[in-house]
Write a structure and sequence with these properties.
Elements: E1 13-16, H1 18-24, H2 32-43, E2 49-54, H3 67-73, E3 81-85, H4 89-97, E4 102-108, H5 111-118, H6 122-138, E5 143-148, E6 152-153, E7 157-158, H7 161-173, E8 178-183, H8 190-203, E9 209-213, H9 220-231, E10 235-238, H10 258-267, H11 276-290
Parallel strand pairs: 1-2, 1-10, 2-3, 3-4, 4-5, 5-8, 8-9, 9-10
Antiparallel strand pairs: 6-7
Helix pairs in contact: 2-3, 2-11, 7-8, 8-9
The chain binds 3-hydroxy-3-methylglutaryl-coenzyme A and magnesium ion (MG).
Magnesium ion (MG) binds near residues 21, 182, 184 and 214.
Amino acid sequence: MDPVKPPIRPTPRLVEVGPRDGLQNEKNPVSVEAKVAFVDALSETGLKEIEAGAFVNPKSVPQMADSEIVFARIKRKPGVTYSALVPNEKGLDLALACKVDKVSVFTAASETFNQKNIKASIKESIERFRPVVLRTRQARLPIRGYVSTAFWCPFEGQVRPEKVVEVVKMLSGIGVTEFSIGDTIGKASPDEVRKLLFLLCKAVPKDSIFLHFHNTFGRAVANAIVAWKTFGITGFDSSAGGAGGCPYAPGASGNVSTEALVSAFKAAGSDPGVDEIKLKAAAAGIFKHLGRPVGARPAK
Ligand code: HMG
Ligand code: MG
């Protein structure tokens, strides 16, 4: 093997979560027009999947309260999947009425975070999702299941990989076929990622695994590259400009930026097919509305 030329590895598949995770924690309301322009700009970059909103209790996450209007106004680009977070059947009714292309339920690997986030134990959340998953599948739509706090919980500390595998199996048991494994507070290290993937890749097909790294400690890109190089994981979530954070996870900072992942994968010899200039423009467009430079965190 040529020691300089990198080996060919499977092409990464990026899920853009900026319009949802990126904006949900912003204190000041972002206008519908700005959100729609953001999604439309992202649609032109070559990204194949965009999480465009969340059908959750508007009192829990006020910033996502206008997701119905966002979905009604975006220009849907053929070949792009527009997905949304759905916590219960009420959310699913709204999501289906908006003609989402894909539904994402969300639970966690730690009880305290799950209670605070969706007011349910892990088991209760799975039961709540059962009819959501069934109806999503009946509608012939793909279904993703998030597992938050898969490495660290802001309330309980380190989370055992075995617990994450257990929750993934519970989701799989009710018919979820794609899993997004969340480092909600951005604290995972490459070794922790290896430990979890060593177990998880034995439990579910590796193509069904997506990794959702927040970047609080600056390790998200290293974590993604380890998962890709060592385990052949190709699914990664990211957010244009690196905005993001969960209102129920104190200390969480932004998602890994889509720009950083695209650049890192390209440098490692695999092109995720995203136009970096258009991506930068999309990030700049939304950060103008957030009132701070691209990549900057909100003032504390
Ligand atoms: P609850 O209070 O138990 O719900 O909340 P409820 O069924 O008792 O209803 C209370 C009120 O909410 C009622 O309205 C319902 O109609 C309404 P009221 O009678 O008071 O006027 N309601 C809804 N409205 C719109 N859409 C709905 C909906 N459901 C109820 N779907 C619930 C339980 C799960 C609904 C709530 O806790 C909730 O919405 N939580 C969402 C929290 C959230 O969105 N967190 C951020 C996303 S998760 C994340 O960021 C992590 C992730 O990025 C991965 C990672 O980083 O790890 C995905
Ligand atoms: Mg997140």
